[in-house]
Every structure is written in structure tokens, then in C-alpha cells.
Amino acid sequence: MSIDIISKIKEAGLLGKSGSNFPVWIKWDSVKKADALKKYVIANAAEGEPEVFKDGFILNNYPKEVVLGIKAALNCIEKSSGYIYLRKDYYNKFKYTLNKLIKGADIKLFKKTGGYLSGEETVLLNIIEGRLSEPRIKPPYPTESGLFGYPSLINNVETFYRVSKVLKGEYKDNRFYSISGDVNNRGVFEFKTDLNISQILKESNNFPDFDFFVQAGGGISGEILLPSELGRPLKGTGGIIIYNRKRTNPASLIVKKLKFLMNENCDKCVPCREGIYRIFEMVKNNDIDKDKLNEIVFALEETSLCGLGKCSVVSIKGFFNKLL
Ligand code: SF4
Fold first, then answer.
1. Ligand 1 neighbour 24 (Cβ under 6 A)
2. Where are the domains of the chain?
3. Is 309 in the pocket of ligand 1 (CB under 6 A)?
4. Rg (Cα) of the chain, in Å, rounded?
5. Which CATH number is associated with domain 251-323?
6. Strand 223-225 to strand 212-216: parallel, antiparallel, or no bridges (unpaired)?
């Protein structure tokens, strides 16, 4: 059964749905093969990216399938115990249903503390262990040394849902998209992964008839794209926010996003702690020094310790190059 499910996941070509697009079978295989007395399987339902809400949709509509996927991982990986790590509102909303579904299985629900950063996989490990809410330096990766130092498989809610589809022989190369902003038809939609952004907006009945731009991939870390750039597939966590250009002031919008990053970062490393603040100052004082900006962006991208700092540059570059 265990080898079987890993080969089936491999054959299906399932990629992780947390935004990393990492082949799922490789993670499963590494944890399965790791030589350890104990192992963990963790379903990440932290979903902290603003305007991304598809994992909540999945937990609401397909909790059985999610738990089936987690149980498959527990069966496949010997000596493992499971956690479902839920952000507070999801914990409150879904705990009764999930508790029923996990009854008798070695799976615990864990209510997340903290904000945006707490969904990062090494922060999540620290939080479950009762440590400070800050990222760990990788390597070692969680598959080698994760929860309490044991090999740990961490997959997103949608990934476990897709595993259940592989198990049932119903797998399709689809994903869920959260669409929001200046739209008529806000919601979660399921389409094939090879649809481009323009097609996703059209198929979901959300393609604007006004001048607009989008943030695609996530409300903070996603790319800023103009209408002429929508012929590409959607990366990241599967979120698309539409902004009406007439009603949106890009300077105020980036200030809002920079404030969010300043509030949510952990202050552990200088490029992120100082760099984001310096960019915020430049925009707020309307005093943008392009050379200084490029240096800060370079430092953020190359030397930040975790994804929050590194990925922040994706939208920062978009704002400066396309909107400001
Ligand atoms: S990049 Fe930001 S969030 Fe990540 S470790 Fe550094 S300060 Fe903390």
C-alpha cells in the first residue's frame, strides 16, 4: 500500500499546493525512507496569505477527503503521528467536523497562534513545539529534522485533498483559485492548472470591463500584473486580486502592504527588518531613490532568512516598475 501510494502520486505528477510547486512524492519518499524512531505528518491549514481562502473552502466542503489524504500519509509512513495545524478561525469553525473524522486515528488538531509568518513550515514547527514564532535556518529541511527533531512531512490542505483524489482514482491536474477584489463573482473556483490568468478570470466570469491590474499568486507575495501580462499560468498560492485602476492609489496600496509586512515579520534578520522599513519611508515621504531602492531589494532577495523577506520583493518590484 505504502509504496503504491507514493508511486501513484508520482505518476499523477502531483505538485504541492502551498505555492512551492514541489513534487509531493519526493517529500513523502524522503520522510518514509528516513531512519528515525518517530516521524510526523502535518497538514498545514494556516492559510495566512491575505485574500487567499481556498483551504477554508476545501475544509468546509471536502473535510473527509482531506482527512483521507492525511490518513494515507500516516499509513504510508511507519511510526508517524499526525497534526492538523489550523489558523484560529478555521479551528473554531471546523473542529467539530474534523474531530469526528479523526476519531480513532493518531491525529491531533492544533490551533495556530500568531499571524502571517506562522504558516511558514519551520515557524509552524517552532509553534507546535512551544518555541518562539520565528523561522529556522534550512537545511536541515523538515523532511530530515522537523517536529521535535524528527523527520516530518508537511503538506498543505489542498495537497492532502488531491492525494485523496489519487487514492480514489479520480485525480485530475486541477487546482483551486481564490478570486477577489473589484469583481462581481468573488469566490473559489476549480480549474485545470494549465489555464492562464486571463482564462481563469474569463472562466470564472470575473474578467473586468474596466482598466485594471491584478496581484496574482497571493495578496502579499504575489506578482503585480497588467492586463497585457495575463497570458501566463498562475504561480504561488492560487489567489488573484483585481484592482480597478481608477479607484486604486498605488502608493497607498503599497504602503498598506509594507505596513502589513513590517507588522508580520519576526525582526530576526536585518535585510527584512530594516529593508522593508526603509522602502516604506521612501514611499511615505514620496522620496524614492532608485539606486538605494535597488540595493535594498537586492539585499532582501538574496539575504533574507526566510520566504517573507525574499518573496516581498516580487510585489515591491511590480509596484515600482509598473504602477508608481
Ligand atoms: S526574512 Fe523577515 S520574517 Fe523571515 S526571518 Fe528575516 S525578519 Fe524574520
1. no
2. 2-167, 174-247, 251-323
3. yes
4. 20
5. 1.20.1440.230
6. antiparallel
Sequence length of the chain is: 324
Judge if pTM exceeds 0.90.
yes
Answer whether 308 contacts ligand 1 (Cβ < 6 A): yes
- Per DSSP, 61 falls in state H
The residue that leads in pLDDT, 237 or 209, is 209
CATH number, span 2-167: 3.40.50.11540
- Distance (angstroms) between ligand 1 centre and the Cα of 170 equals 40
Each residue's pLDDT tens digit, 100-117:
999 999 999 999 988 899
Give distance in angstroms: CA of 297 to centre of ligand 1.
14
Question: 142-155 pLDDT, tens per residue?
Answer: 999 999 999 999 99
CA 198-204-207 angle, 5° bins: 45
What percent helix, strand, coil does the chain show, rounded to 5? 50, 15, 35
Q: Using one digit for the tens of pLDDT, what is the confidence trace for 270-309? A: 999 999 999 999 999 999 999 999 999 999 999 999 999 9
Is CATH 3.10.20.600 what the domain over 174-247 is classified as, yes or no? yes
Give the mutation target among 136, 308, 310 for probing the ligand 1 site: most ligand atoms within 8 A of CB: 308
Looking up cell 520522510 gives 31
| Ligand 1 close to Cβ of residue 267 (< 6 A) | yes
- Which residue's alpha carbon is at the smallest distance from atom 6 of ligand 1? 269
DSSP letter at 149? G
What is the SS3 string spanning 134-202?
Answer: CCCCCCCCCCCCCHHHCCEEEEEHHHHHHHHHHHCCCCCCEEEEEEEECCCCCEEEEEECCCEHHHHHH
